[in-house]
Design a protein that fits this description.
The protein has 359 residues and is α/β, with parallel strands linked by helices. It is 46% helix and 19% strand. Strand 10 and strand 11 form a beta hairpin. The protein is globular and about 60 Å long. The structure holds nicotinamide-adenine-dinucleotide, the ligand O=C(O)C(=O)C[C@@H](O)[C@H](O)[C@H](O)COP(=O)(O)O and zinc ion.
């Protein structure tokens, strides 16, 4: 197992990455001092595959697990689902010594993490990510929350887990679509923070698509190292952390406008990154060749690169709700060449017009 420690003033925690780790979750929770009842929040797709081994391991380590299922899909990352989780936690009699285990992808992790942040004013939680996207991104760094009909992740909290345990073997059962969606966040790290990682991805497209376990282990660990480095310097997104929003400003707007149904998060981010590369080139931050490299990699891994057809007015309204909006101006992440970034201010109207006129 590879371990990466994320060191924060609030508290530090380990990210364990390796094959076959799920059966060790009970011992790992014990080792970080957790006790009492454990609520395993998961969904009907993941539960039949992995809830048994997780609850078995927790029982063996002396915990009393209860499984709470939420419906599968981004459209259920809502206040209604969150309330149903609170109901179940109360019914199960969880107290302040109890903890939550988020077993699933980013939707489960974000929602269960927010439940942990708010239930009884905060109980510990553990991330057990089972999608590529969750292993490289959402399980790390403590952003938790739910969507609102008007915008992505508009309700939430910064709340760090006690532990992240990423079992790479779970990726074998992930659908092609969701696996590729995870590659979007991997490309993001390379495009704005690590030129070497970007070049590795370009060279290893075949291995990535075949889910070569050794390559995946290396790539997941590198992404977590990069994210830990960013979050350690700026846990609550005062500045630097916004770089992790590369591709997300337009991406989140497209997700919202699709009613959280047509595009999954990674697909929306892929489209947003291609738009960001084009805007970066237009502003003189990168070359036509850089835009081509980003677009080609996105397309080679089977992700969409063309913006969906949306009304400019709707796009402006949605962009105006972005959390990076300050007095009508958005802090937008451009790539400076490949592997580096620069923030540029755009109004929602400028972004929407650039995006919609490009068609
Ligand atoms: N908190 C953060 O920092 C952060 C970062 C990136 C994304 N996110 C959020 O993450 C979410 C997207 O996460 P996601 O891409 O994991 O989507 P997801 O959670 O919807 O999972 C994708 C699909 O894969 C299924 N699944 C999960 N693990 C599986 C497995 N091992 N085998 C088979 N099927 C499996 C799920 O049931 C679901 O149907 C979005 O809500 C996004 O906003 C949060
Ligand atoms: O961890 C971060 O910071 C990120 O921005 C990671 C993103 O990939 C992720 O989608 C995040 O949920 C977006 O955060 P938001 O604050 O823009 O909603
Ligand atoms: Zn994201």
């Amino acid at each position: 197992m590879k371990t990466i420690t994320i060191q924060l003033d609030s508290h530090s925690y380990d990210i364990g990455i390796g094959e076959g780790l799920l059966s060790g979750i009970g011992a790992a929770c014990k080792a970080v001092g957790l006790a009492g009842a454990a609520a395993v929040v998961t969904n009907p797709t993941v539960a039949p595959l992995y809830a048994g081994v997780v609850t078995g391991s927790l029982q063996q380590a002396g915990f009393t697990p209860v499984v709470i299922e939420i419906p599968d899909g981004e459209e259920f990352k809502t206040g209604e689902t969150l309330n149903s989780v609170y109901d179940r936690l109360l019914e199960a009699g969880l107290d302040r010594r109890s903890f939550i285990v988020a077993l699933g992808g980013g939707v489960v992790g974000d929602l269960a993490g927010f439940a942990a942040a708010t239930f009884l004013r905060g109980i510990p939680f553990v991330q057990v990510p089972t999608t590529l996207l969750a292993q490289v991104d959402s399980s790390v760094g403590g952003k938790t929350g739910i969507d609102h009909p008007l915008g992505k992740n508009l309700i939430g909290a910064f709340y760090q887990p006690h532990l992240v345990l990423s079992d790479v073997s779970t990726l074998k059962t992930l659908s092609e679509r969701h696996y590729r969606a995870g590659l979007a966040e991997v490309i993001k790290y390379g495009a704005v923070l690590d030129a070497e990682l970007f070049a590795l991805l370009e060279a290893k497209v075949d291995g990535l698509l075949k889910r070569d376990p050794q390559l995946l282990g290396r790539v997941i660990a590198r992404c977590c190292e990069i994210k830990a480095w960013v979050v350690e310097q700026d846990e609550r997104e005062g500045g630097l952390r916004a770089v992790l929003n590369y591709g997300h400003t337009l991406g989140h707007a497209f997700e919202t406008l699709s009613g959280y149904r047509d595009l999954v998060h990674g697909e929306a981010v892929a489209i947003g990154m291609v738009q960001a590369a084009q805007l970066s080139q237009r502003e003189g931050y990168c070359s036509v060749g850089d835009v081509e490299r980003i677009t080609t990699l996105v397309q080679q891994v089977g992700l969409p690169s063309d913006a969906p057809v949306v009304a400019t007015e709707d796009l402006i309204t949605s962009l105006a709700k972005d959390k990076k909006n300050r007095s009508g101006t958005l802090q937008y992440v451009c790539n400076r060449g490949i592997g580096s970034y620069v923030f540029h201010q755009f109004t929602p109207a400028q972004l929407a017009e650039a995006c919609c006129s490009g068609r």
